Amino acid sequence: MSTARFILARYTTSATTTRSPALNASLKNDAAPEDIAAIIIEPVQGEGGFYAASPAFMQRLRALCDQHGIMLIADEVQSGAGRTGTLFAMEQMGVAADITTFAKSIAGGFPLAGVTGRADVMDAIAPGGLGGTYAGNPIACAAALAVLDIFEQENLLQKANTLGKTLRDGLMEIAETHREIGDVRGLGAMIAIELFENGDPGKPNAALTADIVARAREKGFNSALLRSLLQHLAHPRSTHY
């Protein structure tokens, strides 16, 4: 039985600025295409900073995978379940993944994760070949079905887009008079802000970021802090405004 390997490509730039030529170079320098079973990517990075891949990049990646017979796996654990304004962020990229993973919001707080994909891929697994000791918890599955019903009943996908635009526009307006806000980014309601000292991208303002998070928490608003430098704003899609 062969040993599986995870390969981290040696990009000359950060993962947030990688271009498709770097991916082609990686297939020459890091691993032969025939040795690669799949490429795993978050269409919107989670812990990487809420950077959204461009549709053009994802389409080139899809073409690259098709050219070499490589599976494309979308990790939508954070970006799925309507967070970006569509049920899955890949819907906005103009291409489909062969396999998609999801979790977190899909069950409204109950522990549930899932995987879906092309019929020929999912059907290739023999009965009993995919599962887990605690898989298929009936309460979590019922919660997920209720979440999907509420998405339709309350039009939560449109609400995610509206809330995201309202938040992004408001933050951009504040940024016009506050140089500390160096970047506002994301997709749909999956928004992050990055703070810098005097607007200098080379000087992240960790102290100010932590202070804002702490003050917001005092007022009942919780936000995630990534590496003490980035503030994630991921409010519930059911938020009323």
TrEMBL record:
Pfam family, any one: Aminotran_3
The protein's name in its UniProt record: 4-aminobutyrate aminotransferase
Lineage top rank: taxon: Bacteria
Alphabetic keyword roster: Aminotransferase, Pyridoxal phosphate, Transferase
One function term, GO molecular function aspect: pyridoxal phosphate binding
EC id: 2.6.1.19
Cofactor(s) needed by this chain: pyridoxal 5'-phosphate
Enzyme class: transferase
UniProt cross-references to PROSITE patterns, sorted A to Z: AA_TRANSFER_CLASS_3
InterPro entries: Aminotrans_3, Aminotrans_3_PPA_site, Class-III_PLP-dep_AT, PyrdxlP-dep_Trfase, PyrdxlP-dep_Trfase_major, PyrdxlP-dep_Trfase_small
